[in-house]
Design goal:
Blueprint lengths: L8 H15 L4 H13 L1 H23 L3 H9 L1 H21 L12 H13 L2 H10 L10 H34 L4 H21 L4
Helix pairs in contact: 1-8, 2-3, 2-6, 2-8, 2-9, 3-6, 3-7, 3-8, 5-9
Length: 208
Amino acid sequence: MPGLGLISAENLALFVLACVALAATPGPNVALIVATALKHGRRAGMLSAAGVNVGLVLQLVVVAAGLAGLVEIFARHFDLVRYAGAAYLVWLAVRQWRQAGAGAQQAAPSGRAAFARGLAVAFANPKTLLFHAAFLPQFVTDPAHPVPQIALLAGTFAMIALVGDMLWAIAADRARTALKGRFARVADRVSAGILMGGAAILLAAGRR
């Protein structure tokens, strides 16, 4: 039934499976969420996840609205954006390493700061936007009326990504609880290492 934004059950099931696989795959966003929750606890990790997902939703809106000009801007400045994002993650990692073991002496970031970090890292990876621009249309079954279907796909992806990121934050917080006390310094340095890993993923990212 063309024009109504309907997607076949088979296509939607395949799309959901692909989204779950993507949500379970660590990247710069997950690195920030896990590192934040491991260092500062569940609340900070979830606020970072919220920032990441607001950034994701804004990217999906760009794709769903067919704003090719914005996608082109990100594509044109692909390397500049990802280098800036990698530098930001390295800066966070160095700070975390230096503060390892500080415990209660090191205050957690404010809710606004944790959210802003997530939002910044979400936009620091231009490959995400370019990926969505190429990924979502593959599941559209009515090319003559793509916007309703892409909007549905984008909303589905956003919900799955949010749940996945929240689960990452919860898991990291539980690891933090298990490692507290004499292992706090180790946990903090693992957290810093995860941030460095996120930076390495950004630096290694290509357009394909």
